[in-house]
Design a protein that fits this description.
This protein is mainly alpha-helical. The chain has one domain (about 5-60). It is about 60% helix and about 0% strand. The protein has four helices and no strands. The protein has helices at about 5-10, 15-25, 35-40, 50-60. The protein is flat and about 45 Å long. The termini are far apart.
């Protein structure tokens, strides 16, 4: 959903809800979380993209390096 952020900014949450219904909600009882994530994304769960996002936010908001 390439324009998801723009739609959310406009207050249009219907495309997100429809995607969640198709890809997540209808399968919630059939598959456990890790398998559902694998099926949706094609990858196992990985915290690295989330950590990179946090590092970027820390650097842009506070102007400091988030490196260890």
């Amino acid at each position: 959903m390439p324009d998801l952020e723009a739609k959310i900014a406009q207050g249009d949450l219907i495309p997100l809800k429809e995607w969640l219904n198709q890809k997540v909600h209808r399968w919630g009882r059939q598959w456990q979380g890790p398998e559902l994530i694998q099926r949706i994304t094609g990858h196992s769960i990985d915290a690295e993209p989330f950590l990179q996002s946090l590092k970027h936010k820390i650097q842009s908001v506070y102007g400091i390096s988030a490196s260890p």
